[in-house]
Amino acid sequence: MKLILAADQNWAIGKDGGLLCHLPGDLKFFKEKTSGKTVVMGRPTLESLPGGKPLPKRENIVLTTNRDFKRDGVTVVHSEAELDQILAGRNTDDVMIMGGGKVYRDFLHKCDTCYITKIYASFEGADTHFVDLDALGEFEIVWESDMQEENCIRYQFFEYRRVKHG
User: Fold this and answer.
1) For residue 164, what pLDDT is reported?
2) How many separate domains does the chain show?
3) Cβ distance 164 to 142 under 8 Å?
4) Domain residues for 28?
5) Distance of CA 28 to CAs 25, 65, 110, 134, Å?
6) Whole-number Å distance between alpha carbons of 59 and 75
7) 151 vs 125: CA distance, rounded Å
8) pLDDT of residue 22
9) What CATH number has the domain bearing residue 114?
10) Across the strands, what pairs with 149?
């Protein structure tokens, strides 16, 4: 499994159920990395997407504890075990964890690759954070992009891979 997110310099990833800022280049990077893949998200993340609709050209799986939740175009699961059953026999390299905060925390242990957009800014009022992969010691950077800048915000794309021990 892989994980994809954008974080500010404090590893904040969201505010009031949405992204910290609008960066067209980051959205393009996200689309390139997830198109044709299976994306796994929590219900609030689905509801934060345009029109609350699933992402096109991807299989959308939504994790929710709400047993009554249904949405056209998505597969709804209620537990990690249920997700494992659906993904059984598939190439998990084609599965992308895309948020939100709880889903990222719950599935980081299953991810071997993390695509991180590092935003070189700090956002006031950010209320959702991710773990600092640089301090965690379980991942190493294997690729980084050139510096990008949009809307007066500088950022870079990074690919982290889980460090293999032994």
Assistant:
1) 85
2) 1
3) no
4) 2-162
5) 5, 31, 25, 24
6) 8
7) 19
8) 94
9) 3.40.430.10
10) 154
